Amino acid sequence: MTSDSLVVINLAAILIATSYDNSQPVIKWGGLVVAVGSVVSTLFG
């Protein structure tokens, strides 16, 4: 695993942590989808 992968995973974790508590479902689930998509793309792309 390269350092670029670790950076993407850490940024995704920060995105989830900051957006998941939001009361608006679009921001809550949008942040989760973007974070998961980024990690999957980094690991398998």
Describe what this molecule looks like in 3D.
This protein is mainly α and 45 residues long. It has one domain (3-44). It has helices spanning 3-19, 25-44. α1 packs antiparallel against α2. The two termini are 13 Å apart. The mean pLDDT is 88.
Describe the protein's topology:
Blueprint: H1 3-19, H2 25-44
Short synopsis of the structure:
The chain has 45 residues and is an all-alpha fold. It has helices at residues 3-19, 25-44. The protein is built from two helices and no strands.
Instruction: Give the helix tally.
Output: 2
Radius of gyration: 11 Å
How much of the residues is beta strand, in percent?
under 5%
Mean pLDDT: 88
Question: Low-confidence stretches at least 5 residues in length (pLDDT < 50)?
Answer: none
Beta strands, count: 0
Helix content: over 70%
Q: What class do helices, strands and sheet pairing give?
A: mainly alpha
What brief labels describe this structure?
0% strand; 45 residues; mainly alpha; elongated
